[in-house]
């Protein structure tokens, strides 16, 4: 065992005991030291072992370029569950990994007690790392049986729809009823209803008619679920892939929707735990706090402007103010009940925004950047806009026609997002390859007129 791993092995249980003493409540954490190459893959794939797809290769190239240019350093990756799984880079210094241990314990407290995380894990299970590995193994078997090209076609479709889930519905849903009852005779109303039950007024009961129910009965947001259950000729292995992608997307949604809160909470607690850790040498504490300053930096010097939000910085400053003014127990109640949408709208004040020099801006394609209106509401929505629906346009299943044509509708009025027409058509082609029937999408054109996009080569 190396000196660093030996020192960490001694530090981890003492830091965990201190966290419990400070009021943190978390499931056990399994810490593991790994090489930078492994950490890079985990950061790209989102999980230690995940289904194979070419899109992850593109993400890996981007992450590697960022890393080599000095724009990205990965200190840790933690996967909530019972137990939590945390990976630390074995080339980081001892003081960096000591800070990371404290940071991870903050994440573990957040994920056990925040309602969005708790619901997600109650629905999909507390062992996503093992589940994702099982999904990957299943897909490898399918590739051997049906060929890489066919499997990649299905993965193209499923992963392109990854944001399109509906966590307001139960994870395990029942299919829609295929039939519904229609009464031939309408119920009496008004004057007639008052005398319908008088003696001598009885009439023969009407025979109810059973007819085909519309599918879906109302607009359906969960595209992965709908296609998996209603694609006319979908094979079982194709359905398995869609449901595996849906389960992993369901797991990741609270991670995405609570990023500012979660990173800020972990940053606040790593700072506090390190300050209270009297078992650390003073020189290590100083080094840890230098790293802390880098982590929660707004990424701008005195004469610079940061155009990219650092969630560690914003979350840390907000939690620090809330705890200072309202106390830890009040902060815990906020942590337990809210996500980033409520956190930003309810707790990012004008004063805090000004202190952090946060502002809204508009960026044009030619590179020109202009500061937008100095409204707090506008700033809130500017921060939150990329978070709606995983950052993807909101699209619903509107109708399944008798001939099997799938009709989708883009609800641009809800999220204000336009569509990239060629990209949207490509996704429709992915869907059509699995659906095996025409797929059409109703959206708005550049002049706010309704327009159709089709999976076929020419829009109709």
Write the layout of secondary structure elements.
Elements: H1 3-21, E1 29-34, H2 36-45, H3 54-68, E2 76-79, E3 84-89, H4 94-113, H5 115-124, H6 128-146, H7 148-160, E4 179-182, H8 190-195, E5 209-212, H9 223-230, H10 236-257, H11 259-276, H12 282-295, H13 311-326, H14 328-337, H15 340-347, H16 350-355, E6 361-363, E7 369-371, H17 376-384, E8 395-400, E9 406-410, H18 412-415, H19 421-435, E10 439-444, E11 450-454
Parallel strand pairs: 1-3, 9-10
Antiparallel strand pairs: 2-3, 4-5, 6-7, 8-9, 10-11
Pfam families: SpoVR
InterPro entries: Spore_V_R, SpoVR_N
Domain SpoVR protein-like N-terminal: 7-374
Descriptive report:
The longest helix is centred in the middle third of the chain and has 22 residues. 53% of the residues lie in helices and 11% in strands. The chain has 460 residues and is α+β, with helices and mostly antiparallel strands. Among the domains are: 180 residues, no CATH class; 67 residues, no CATH class. α1 runs parallel beside α4, α4 crosses α5 and α6 packs antiparallel against α10. A four-stranded mixed beta sheet has the order 8-9-10-11, with helices on one face. A three-stranded mixed beta sheet has the order 1-3-2. A two-stranded antiparallel ribbon has the order 4-5.
């Amino acid at each position: 065992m190396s000196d660093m791993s030996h020192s960490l092995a001694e530090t981890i249980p003492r830091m965990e005991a201190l966290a419990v003493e400070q009021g943190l409540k978390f499931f056990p954490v399994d810490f593991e030291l790994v090489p930078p190459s492994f950490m890079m893959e985990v950061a790209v794939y989102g999980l230690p072992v995940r289904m194979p797809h070419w899109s992850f290769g593109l993400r890996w190239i981007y992450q590697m370029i960022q890393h080599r240019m000095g724009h990205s350093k990965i200190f840790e990756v933690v996967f909530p569950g019972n137990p939590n799984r945390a990976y630390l880079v074995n080339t980081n210094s001892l003081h960096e990994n000591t800070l990371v241990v404290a940071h991870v314990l903050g994440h573990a407290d957040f994920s056990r007690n925040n309602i969005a995380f708790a619901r997600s894990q109650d629905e999909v299970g507390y062992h996503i790392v093992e589940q994702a590995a099982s999904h990957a193994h299943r897909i490898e078997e399918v590739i051997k049986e049906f060929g890489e090209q066919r499997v990649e076609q299905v993965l193209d479709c499923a992963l392109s729809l990854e944001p399109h889930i509906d966590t307001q519905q139960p994870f395990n849903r029942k299919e829609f009823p295929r039939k519904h009852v229609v009464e031939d005779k309408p119920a009496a109303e008004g004057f007639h209803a008052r005398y319908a039950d008088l003696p001598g007024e009885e009439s023969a009961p009407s025979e109810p008619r059973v007819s085909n129910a519309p599918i879906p009965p109302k607009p359906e947001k969960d595209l992965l679920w709908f296609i998996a259950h209603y694609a006319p000729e979908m094979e079982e292995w194709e359905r398995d892939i869609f449901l595996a992608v849906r389960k992993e997307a369901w797991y990741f949604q609270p991670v995405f929707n609570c990023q500012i809160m979660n990173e800020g909470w972990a940053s606040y607690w790593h700072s506090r735990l390190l300050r209270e850790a009297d078992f650390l040498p003073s020189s290590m504490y100083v080094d840890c706090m230098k790293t802390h300053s880098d982590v929660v930096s707004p990424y701008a010097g005195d004469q610079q402007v940061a155009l990219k939000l650092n969630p560690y910085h914003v979350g840390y400053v907000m939690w620090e103010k809330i705890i200072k003014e309202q106390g830890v127990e009040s902060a815990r109640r906020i942590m337990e009940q809210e996500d980033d949408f409520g956190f930003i709208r309810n707790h990012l004040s004008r004063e805090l925004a000004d202190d952090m020099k946060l502002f809204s801006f508009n960026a044009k394609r030619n590179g020109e950047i202009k500061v937008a209106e100095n409204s707090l509401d506008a700033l809130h929505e500017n921060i939150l806009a990329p978070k709606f629906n995983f950052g993807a346009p909101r699209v619903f299943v509107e109708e399944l026609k008798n001939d099997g044509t799938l009709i989708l509708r883009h609800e641009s009025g809800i999220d204000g997002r336009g569509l990239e027409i060629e990209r949207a058509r490509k996704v429709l082609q992915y869907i059509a390859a699995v659906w095996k029937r025409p797929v059409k999408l109703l959206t708005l054109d550049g002049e706010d007129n309704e327009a159709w996009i089709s999976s076929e080569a020419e829009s109709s």
